[in-house]
TrEMBL record:
Record's keyword terms, sorted: Signal
Keyword Lipoprotein applies: no
Keyword Signal in annotation: yes
Gene3D superfamilies: 3.30.1360.200
Domain SecDF P1 head subdomain as annotated: residue spans: 211-311
Pfam families tied to this protein: SecDF_P1_head
Residues of the signal peptide: 1-24
Protein name: SecDF-export membrane protein gliding motility-related protein
């Protein structure tokens, strides 16, 4: 057998196959992002890696960074994915967090009423009222809706709800990374749940660590995949954590089980679920994010979580590389 001719034939076949792949995926394209928040230079390497991972998860290939300047970064890639799908995948940061839910509702309500009372006293001494200028004014709707007279919610881990049109009034409270409330030992922060069909948002209070961060987050995740949920037609996201994350998760669920507590699973600052731990501590680092996810949405979220979180970014341009 003439090995020289055989190797030549294999080389021709390989080059032909590569050419066919390039033709099938179309011309080389570019996408340019701009980071909308200030990030440290030391963080940019991981951001670039996570953006590449997210693009690759969309079945795009030959993804590479071709230019970077200040807050902007440009990538080239090959593949035929609808621009709207790419935009949807980069509309969320993929920031996954787990918090212990604060259930001391009576103390929280008293604190909110004290803010509302302070607002009322201040306005009574002002000749001209300027609603919206003071944080207390913005809390009026929040404090009046979330109180003992609000619709009876059986779940003691939910503070209450707020209508979509009133969210802007409590935005200053939601933007605080932590709040020290008298008689509560740990700092808390307020979060919204997903919007309901009635355009309402459930409101939660969760505990934060001394560094004002979640005790467990997405950097411990090693795998995320969509799977059929318990409710027919809906999907959930199965998550696997590394050993360090598994240990933290075991301790969190053990404490929640002993205290009949809840753990909020938060993605992009929105509480997706806040289940009660009823079966004891969870070992092995496995958990699920359930919800009314379609198969497509669950796959997208799984890819985003798997790829790693990125800061808030906007797409400046997409097109064929010239």
């Amino acid at each position: 057998m003439n090995y020289k001719y055989l190797l030549s034939a294999l080389l021709v076949i390989t080059i032909f196959a590569m050419s066919c792949t390039d033709l099938a995926s179309g011309p080389e394209k570019i996408i340019q992002f701009e980071i909308e928040t200030e990030v440290a230079t030391s963080e940019k390497a991981s951001i670039i890696e996570n953006v590449q991972n997210r693009l690759t998860a969309l079945d795009l290939h030959a993804v590479k960074l071709v230019n970077q300047e200040q807050q902007k970064m440009t990538f080239s890639y090959r593949g035929n994915v609808e621009p709207e799908i790419i935009k949807e995948n980069f509309s969320i940061t993929g920031n996954l967090e787990f918090y212990e839910v604060c259930k001391q509702k009576a103390i929280i309500f008293k604190y909110l009423r004290s803010l509302d009372d302070a607002k009322t006293d201040e306005n009574s001494e002002m000749e001209e009222k300027d609603p919206g200028e003071k944080l207390m004014d913005r809390l009026t709707t929040f404090a009046s809706v979330i109180n003992d007279d609000a619709p009876n919610l059986a779940e003691d881990f939910i503070l209450g709800f707020i209508y979509k049109g009133d969210v802007a009034h409590i935005q200053p409270l939601l933007e605080k990374s932590s709040i020290r409330i008298p008689k509560i030992k740990k700092k808390v922060k307020f979060l919204l749940g997903k919007s309901t069909v009635k355009n309402q948002f459930l409101v939660y209070a969760v505990y934060v660590n001394s560094d004002e961060k979640a005790p467990l987050n997405g950097r411990y995740v090693t795998n995320a995949a969509a799977a059929e949920g318990y409710i027919e037609g809906y999907y959930e996201i199965n998550i696997q954590m590394n050993p360090e994350g598994a240990y933290i998760w075991e301790k969190m669920t053990e404490k929640a089980y002993e205290n009949r507590g809840n753990i909020a699973v938060v993605l992009d600052n929105i509480v997706h679920v806040a289940p009660t731990v009823t079966q004891g501590k969870i070992t092995g680092g496995n958990t699920q994010i359930s919800g009314s996810f379609t198969k497509e949405h669950a796959n997208m979220l799984a890819n985003v979580i798997q790829s790693g979180s990125i800061p808030k970014m906007k797409i400046l341009k997409m097109g064929i590389l010239e």
